[in-house]
TrEMBL record:
Classification lineage: Bacteria, Pseudomonadati, Pseudomonadota, Alphaproteobacteria, Hyphomicrobiales
Family stated for the protein in its record: Belongs to the ABC transporter superfamily.
Full protein name: High-affinity branched-chain amino acid ABC transporter ATP-binding protein
A GO term, aspect molecular function: ATP hydrolysis activity
Keywords: Amino-acid transport, ATP-binding, Nucleotide-binding, Plasmid, Transport
CDD domains (alphabetical): ABC_TM1139_LivF_branched
Source organism (scientific name): Rhizobium gallicum bv. gallicum R602sp
UniProt-listed Gene3D superfamilies: P-loop containing nucleotide triphosphate hydrolases
GO terms classed as biological process: L-amino acid transport
């Protein structure tokens, strides 16, 4: 599926009676790389989960290309091209790597697994290992690869680097960049590793208590020391 523009308009959402997101609006063109930043508990995961249709929406609209996702169930959104890799990597520990990948094929031929292996050759080496035997980095590769096999036009990544060694982080970020290189995929990346996110992104939004508090380019954010300190709680970026 080719990359698709995503448009979020006045979105308010939460869990049951708990309102978390308030009036969030932003638009990303096809092929964009958007970093979603903010301190702990500010609503980043809730935003991705809301796009994926897994929270309670109170107000607002979500459009993906010409499709209005707003009233669609999660499964229908996935069929429209929305790929969600949640923060919990959700792999099956007692299935092999290859069996875990079968889940992502959704009726596509088995040969399509090579797409996943081309992206992460390490998964091919470990294809007969159980999911539960993988390192954190390999689990993240598996979880991402399984979603990619569904050929999403927009990929939502929630803290893919969490708990991983720097060398593995570099490998993952290189793979994500590769996905957007041909312009075939739009990526929304939630990350606490701010510098990695900014090196990757071409646009940034920052959430503060469920509201959009800052929007701009990574370059503009690097120069906005006050915003970095207030909204991200770090002294500065290099
Ligand atoms: N299932 C839930 N039910 C009720 N409230 C929730 C639920 N999940 C999250 N929240 C609340 O929603 C707010 C935003 O949480 P969210 O997980 O979206 O933040 P986050 O920015 O992803 O944080 P982190 O950086 O720690 O991952 C928090 O106040 C949190 O306590
Ligand atoms: Mg989160």
């Amino acid at each position: 599926m080719p990359a698709t523009p995503l448009e979020v308009d006045n979105l308010s959402a939460g869990y049951g009676p708990t309102r978390v997101l308030e009036n969030v609006s932003f638009a990303v063109p096809a092929g964009a790389r958007l970093a979603i930043l903010g301190r702990n508990g500010m609503g980043k995961t809730t935003l991705l989960a809301t796009l994926a249709g897994q929270t309670r929406r109170y107000d607002g609209r979500i459009r993906l290309g010409s499709a209005d996702l707003t009233a669609m169930a999660s499964s229908a959104r996935a069929r429209q091209g929305l790929g969600y890799v949640p923060q919990a990597r959700c792999i099956f520990p007692t299935l092999t790597v290859e069996e875990n990948l079968f889940v992502g094929l959704k009726g596509r031929p088995k040969a399509s697994l090579e797409e996943a292996y081309a992206m992460f050759p390490r998964l091919k080496e470990r294809r007969r290992n159980l999911g539960g035997q993988l390192s954190g980095g390999e689990q993240q590769m598996l979880s991402t690869a399984r979603t990619i096999l569904g050929r999403p036009s927009v990929l939502l990544l929630d803290e893919p680097l969490e708990g991983l060694a720097p060398i593995i982080c570099e490998e993952l970020m290189a793979a994500f960049s590769e996905l957007t290189k041909t312009g075939d995929m739009t990526i929304l990346l939630v990350e606490q590793r701010i510098q990695s996110a900014l090196d990757f992104a071409d646009q940034v939004i920052i959430l503060e208590r469920g509201r959009l508090a800052w929007t701009g380019t990574p370059e503009a954010l690097s120069m906005d020391h006050a915003a970095v300190e207030r909204l991200l709680g770090v002294g500065g970026l290099h």
